[in-house]
Amino acid sequence: MDLKEAFKQAILGEIEGRELYAMAAEKVSDTKAKEVFSNLSKEEDLHLEYLQKISEAYFSGQPVEVPMPGKLETFADAESPIFTREFKEFVKDRHFEIATLSIGIKLELEAAAAYREMAKSTEDGKLKRLFKELAEWEDGHYQALRRQISFLQEFYETKNSLFRF
Length: 165
Known about the structure:
Layout: H1 3-27, H2 31-59, H3 95-121, H4 125-159
Helix pairs in contact: 1-2, 1-3, 3-4
């Protein structure tokens, strides 16, 4: 994939992630989840802004100023990085939340892979560094979402009688 197509795919991915997390933040009732999804949406929007500015400068032949990404959203509660512990009790009917996590995992994994590919596709040291940092950032989101699914999966499957399969 050439760098132009890589930028295009990365920008689309950031838009999808931003919208998914913004919708989740509006829809969920769990206060911790609302805050985390809102922050994830803001981070995806920040990535989008970076990519738009950088690609515009890069492809118009202007000097590329690479902003340094801010602090990564942290998920301090290792047992449940996104939802409150009380959420587990009501997980049976939380299909939207579980689906959001599943879709988010796929988006984050794709984004990280795209950024690693972009880092390989450029000789520009600044861009290479930025793309590697963005890949690490998306990997962090991926890991947090995976931990959350692991935390809830058994409860969700049991409450919805999915263990039979």
